[in-house]
């Protein structure tokens, strides 16, 4: 890495997925830790380490020992209600959309909470095992629904009201803070929510941009200086999540490529290129689904779930895999369109371009459909946005001349190829499709 060079070298990748244990979904956290150690050994000497991961999931400790294998956020034990606080109060404090996966709702169902003295989110748990240091980085803390988004601190009063003992909430770290060391190597807090790191690496040149961090989930939104905590934002189910350097990620979770990935798993078909070619040739707007429907959250049997959803909404079931894939991707593009238009209106921030980052930026058909649906140019890339944002924050902490997000983004922009997609087709066709999908009946 230098003033005009930013290059990632992949040392290793390893499997990660849910483990079904007597009807409950867990993460195999010890496998992940062992894989991290193996990866560090393969990498050899490095200047620093930084850990990011998905949000909301956690481990509970008692006197430094893990009490149980962390639950997977797709486990069915949670709900979207807690006692002691109204939805309006909760939003005014935390600014988060109501999702059953949020840490708060997981803790409401947690049987071991009373035995714990510390809660650590997944990247902080791995960091604790490496360093012995206990703390939680702020961008990930902001996804728990126990964090005061304006004060940028835990809301201990809220925690106690909803039955979470404040004693389990450890100190908070800022991205860029050196939090410990592993075998003499500094461990640096980065945007430990992978989307926070990914947004660091959005190669935006202007302020009027939106982003879609596209992977298993799609995180669709804007970058703001302050949270938007209006009733309109709450009812539209937008989150105000913390970003690096005090920014706000004003976004909404859309189910993302999970639906397609689960279909591929059920079909035992890993030839995505062929599926996308068939989808491109399929009839446009033949059938649509609501990708955020709750029946698509859990793993397993996704093609049948799609079929049941389509029948329930009075549509004709697709007869080919390509048509199913077309249905998924057009439905995602429509969900992006709806979310981005709502975000601009609620935050009073118009945008001129949409940046698609992460693995989904490689899906050319989805990127083109997104440009068509939104009526905005789409710039796709980089693919490994989370890793780039992670190392950029580390590099700044080690003294590289990257004073702000603009400098980091300029470096990404000058060192990575971006693919541009220009809107095509008829806007009226997308208007009609959105009306079908969201306007009336089961899609409303």
TrEMBL record:
The Carbohydrate kinase FGGY N-terminal domain extends over: 64-183
* Keyword Nucleotide-binding (UniProt): yes
Q: GO molecular-function annotation terms?
A: ATP binding; glycerol kinase activity; rhamnulokinase activity
Q: Keywords on this record?
A: ATP-binding, Disulfide bond, Kinase, Nucleotide-binding, Rhamnose metabolism, Transferase
Do you know which Gene3D superfamilies this protein is assigned to? 3.30.420.40
Give the EC class as a word.
transferase
Keyword field contains ATP-binding:
yes
A Pfam family assignment:
FGGY_N
Biological process per Gene Ontology, one example term: glycerol metabolic process
EC number(s) reported in the record? 2.7.1.5
**Domain Carbohydrate kinase FGGY C-terminal per the UniProt entry, residue ranges:** 210-397
State the GO CC annotations: cytosol
According to its UniProt record, which protein family does this protein belong to?
Answer: Belongs to the FGGY kinase family.
Recorded protein name is Rhamnulokinase
């Amino acid at each position: 890495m230098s003033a005009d060079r930013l290059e990632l070298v992949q040392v290793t990748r390893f499997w990660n997925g849910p483990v079904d244990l007597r009807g409950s979904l867990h993460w195999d956290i010890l496998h992940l830790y062992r894989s991290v150690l193996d990866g560090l050994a393969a990498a050899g000497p490095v200047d620093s380490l930084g850990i990011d991961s998905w949000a909301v999931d956690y481990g509970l400790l008692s006197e430094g020992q893990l009490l149980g294998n962390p639950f997977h956020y797709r486990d069915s034990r949670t709900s979207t209600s807690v006692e002691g606080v109204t939805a309006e109060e909760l939003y005014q404090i935390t600014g988060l959309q109501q999702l059953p996966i949020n840490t708060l709702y997981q803790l409401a169902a947690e049987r071991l909470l009373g035995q714990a003295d510390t809660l650590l989110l997944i990247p902080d748990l791995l960091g604790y095992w490496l360093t012995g240091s206990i703390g939680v980085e702020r961008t990930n803390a902001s996804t728990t629904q126990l964090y005061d988004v304006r004060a940028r601190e835990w809301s201990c009063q809220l925690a106690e009201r909803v039955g979470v003992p404040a004693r389990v909430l450890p100190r908070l770290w800022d991205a860029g803070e050196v939090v410990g060391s592993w075998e003499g190597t500094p461990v640096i807090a980065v945007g430990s929510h992978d989307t926070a790191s990914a947004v660091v690496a959005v190669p935006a040149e202007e302020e009027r941009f939106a982003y879609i961090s596209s992977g298993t989930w799609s995180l669709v939104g804007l970058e703001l200086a302050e949270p938007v905590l209006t009733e309109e934002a709450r009812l539209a189910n937008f989150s105000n999540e913390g970003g690096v350097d005090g920014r706000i990620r004003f976004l909404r979770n859309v189910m993302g490529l999970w639906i397609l990935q689960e279909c591929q798993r059920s079909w035992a078909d890993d030839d995505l290129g062929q599926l996308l070619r068939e989808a491109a040739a399929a009839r446009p707007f033949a059938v649509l689904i609501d990708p955020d429907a709750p029946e698509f959250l859990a793993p397993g049997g996704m093609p049948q779930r799609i079929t049941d959803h389509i029948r329930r909404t009075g549509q004709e079931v697709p007869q080919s895999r390509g048509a199913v894939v077309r249905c998924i991707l057009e439905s995602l593009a429509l969900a992006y369109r709806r979310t981005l238009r709502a975000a601009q209106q609620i935050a009073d921030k118009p945008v001129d371009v949409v940046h698609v980052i992460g693995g989904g930026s490689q899906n050319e058909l989805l990127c083109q459909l997104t440009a068509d649906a939104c009526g905005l140019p789409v710039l796709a890339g980089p693919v490994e946005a989370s890793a780039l944002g992670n190392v950029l924050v580390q590099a700044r902490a080690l003294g590289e001349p990257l004073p702000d997000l603009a400098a980091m983004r300029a470096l990404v922009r000058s060192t990575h190829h971006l693919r541009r997609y220009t809107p095509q087709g008829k806007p009226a066709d997308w208007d009609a499709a959105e009306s079908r999908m969201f306007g009336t009946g089961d899609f409303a």
